[in-house]
Amino acid sequence: MSQQTADPELYAEIQDFYARHMHLIDAGQVDAWVETFTEDATISNNVNPHPAHGREQIVGVIRRAQQQLDADGIRHRHWMGMLVVEPTADGTVHARSYAMLLAVRLGEAPVLDRSTRCHDELVRVDGDWQIRSRRVHHDGRP
Q1: What are 117's strand-pairing partners?
Q2: What distance in Å separates the CA atoms of residue 85 and residue 4, rounded to the nearest whole number?
């Protein structure tokens, strides 16, 4: 485990970034959400062997997923916690967290859709944080 920890101001900045990032996707604001990634960002996970590279591919994957959720009458709510923020000498930040997705249907109790571990690499672009790389590990899956 890294012994270098984030100062409280950086930690709060990254935590705020994630809150805004997840609120955007949960509100269906895909265009604004994808702007929180670098142009050349990559998202990968242990369930899908094909990572998405670049904003265009990322937004395509998300739009297809949201269309399916809409057809099923489901809204997702993301909760991220247990955040570890590890700054590096070059200004990059490595962030690790647990993320849970709740599936919400009108008139029904929310259901835990999935539990994951998220590993992000964040960089500053024009003064704002953006995700350059996201690796997601779905718990209970190889």
Answers
A1: 98, 137
A2: 9
CA pair distance 116, 138, nearest whole angstrom: 4
Domains and CATH numbers, the chain: 8-138 (3.10.450.50)
Q: Express each pLDDT in 17-38 by its tens digit.
A: 999 999 999 999 999 999 999 9
What is the C-alpha to C-alpha distance for residues 28 and 110, in angstroms, rounded to an integer? 18
CA dist 121 → 66, 76, 105, 129 (Å): 25, 24, 33, 10
Residue with tokens 């990322």: 58
Q: Are 110 and 78 spatial neighbours (Cβ–Cβ below 8 Å)?
A: no
pTM for this structure?
Answer: 0.92
User: Could you tell me the two tokens for 85?
Assistant: 């923020």
Strand partners, 102: 77, 112
Please answer whether residues 112 and 102 qualify as being in contact, where contact means their C-beta atoms are separated by less than 8 angstroms: yes
- For 43-50, what is the mean pLDDT? 92
- Cα 121 from chain centroid? 11
